[in-house]
Specification:
With about 110 residues, the chain is an all-alpha fold. About 65% of the residues lie in helices and about 0% in strands. The chain is built from three helices and no strands.
């Protein structure tokens, strides 16, 4: 009697989680750009939080430059999609008036 064993099914949980995180990020960016006056600060804070969370994960034996580049491209595509979403939702480009009023720390 010959018994064949099939390889286990690939775990798609990571790809599903990555997809859901991307959708959530785009919603955060869209909402932040729709808030008058503080959209840039909200996005900057979220990006800082995201980089801090990835900092430890990007060092180690499994870290590669390719994965970091893919992560950066994906992040900026999410910001771009969020800006387009805000543009569509508002009917015009988001007004970023507070860029001129941000004073550097002295």
């Amino acid at each position: 009697m010959i018994i064949y064993s099939h390889p286990p099914e690939p775990d798609n949980q990571k790809s599903r989680l990555s997809w859901m995180v991307g959708v959530l990020e785009r919603a955060i960016y869209t909402g932040a750009l729709m808030v008058p006056g503080s959209g840039i600060q909200l996005i900057a804070g979220f990006l800082a939080l995201k980089v801090t969370a990835r900092w430890h994960g990007s060092s180690g034996p499994r870290a590669t430059a390719d994965s970091d580049n893919i992560w950066i491209i994906g992040t900026w595509l999410s910001v771009l999609f969020g800006a387009v979403g805000a543009w569509i939702a508002l009917g015009h480009l988001p007004v970023l008036t507070n860029i001129r009023t941000i004073n550097p720390v002295q």
